Amino acid sequence: MFRCVRACVHLSRCTRVGRRGLHGASQATTVGVVGCGNVGAAVSHNLHRQGFRVVGAYDPDPARYADLPPGVTYGILAGLSKDKVWIDHSTTDSDQTMVYSEEAQKVGAYVLEAPITGGLASLKKGQMVVHLGGDKRVADAMTPLLNASYSKVFYVGEIGTAMMVKVISNMLACVHIIAMGEVLMLGKRAQLDLKTLWQAIRVSAGNSFVWETGAPLVFTGSYDPGFTMALQNKDLQLGYDMARKYESVHDRHPDGHELPPPPEGGGLRTPEEVLVLSPVGWHRDP
Fold first, then answer.
1. Is 177 found in the same domain as 115?
2. What are the annotated GO cellular component locations (predicted)?
3. Tens digit of pLDDT for each residue in 235-273?
4. How many domains does the chain have?
5. Which H/E stretch holds residue 187?
6. Which domain holds residue 80?
7. Which of 93, 167, 190, 269 is the most buried (most CB within 10 A)?
């Protein structure tokens, strides 16, 4: 159950929701982080810088503890109890999240799904967006905690909805990256100045978040945004599962799984490496 949980907050000063209401998170709230990889480590440091008390952490790989703020003790919580809140930053199946929420309710605890979007570099700067799904009262109570780590906290709706929004967002981003690689190749073959092309599109109808953040990686020679193809394919699969469940047809998104192989010895690993470097740096004619 804990493998999808990224943060657990104990509201030690809270009273019951039905009697006096759920108190908001503050710098007196103790925070434990479950999963200390890219997201967990960055969130821990963001909270620590803002004065929140990150007191405990758990990760299957003990080597990751070295990247956490000072003073954090290590160990996993045995389970949820009354007035504890799971804040789940992972991108996973929305139905699974709803099952976790039901289990938490049995012991008087709460689950907030909080998938994040914007890229690892933005997360480390506290500039990412987090989508919230769950009880609105719990979301409002946790907003001060989330504001310490994110530039915008966007409440979507009941549990399950935020995860679906995140999956759809990642599906769009993948298609945008593919399109970006193709038009950059077109610009290169047409002998356009690619930086001028980029600036022109930024003020045109074709602009997008991916265009603004992904294309500059090509110009700097960096193709490692910290998001692997395995993670992208996992998110795409979640989208395909949604499409089957709701009987929605998607013709373009399978393009994300139909990627050209890397050049021999290239060792490409990330979406930008395969979807941007491949069309711009090398090309196979049909």
1. no
2. mitochondrion
3. 888 888 888 888 887 776 665 555 544 444 444 444 444
4. 2
5. helix 161-189
6. 2-157
7. 167
In the chain, which ranges are E strands?
7-10, 30-34, 53-58, 73-74, 84-88, 110-113, 116-117, 128-133, 150-157
Assess whether pLDDT exceeds 90 at residue 193.
yes
Kindly write down the DSSP assignment for every residue of 129-168, as one continuous string.
EEEEES-HHHHHHHHHHHHTTEEEEEEEESTTHHHHHHHH
Residues 140-152 have pLDDT tens digits of 999 988 888 788 9
Q: Is residue 286 part of a domain?
A: no
* Polymer length of the chain: 286
* Judgement on whether residues 137 and 180 belong to the same structural domain of the protein: no
pLDDT digits 0-9 by tens, 7-43: 444 443 332 344 445 567 787 777 878 778 888 888 8
Looking at the structure, tell me whether residues 113 and 170 fall in a common domain. no
Q: Is residue 144 part of a domain?
A: yes
User: According to the model, what pLDDT value does residue 284 have?
Assistant: 35
Q: For residue 46, which amino acid is it?
A: N
Whether the CB-CB separation of 32 and 8 falls below 8 Å is answered with yes
Q: Please check whether residue 88 is in contact with residue 162, taking contact to mean a CB–CB distance below 8 angstroms.
A: no
Check: CB of residue 217 under 8 Å from CB of residue 184.
no
Q: How far is 121 from 226, CA to CA, in rounded Å? A: 8
Distance between CA atoms of 61 and 67, rounded to whole angstroms? 12
> Does residue 95 sit within a domain?
yes
The SS3 of residue 198 is helix
Which residue, 157, 180, 201, sits at the end of a domain?
Answer: 157
Is 255 in a helix, a strand, or coil? helix
100 and 169 fall within a common domain: no
90 and 127 part of one domain: yes
Q: What is the pLDDT of residue 253?
A: 63
| 8 Å CB contact between 89 and 7 | yes
For 46, list phi and psi in degrees, rounded to 5: -60, -45
Are 44 and 147 part of one and the same domain? yes
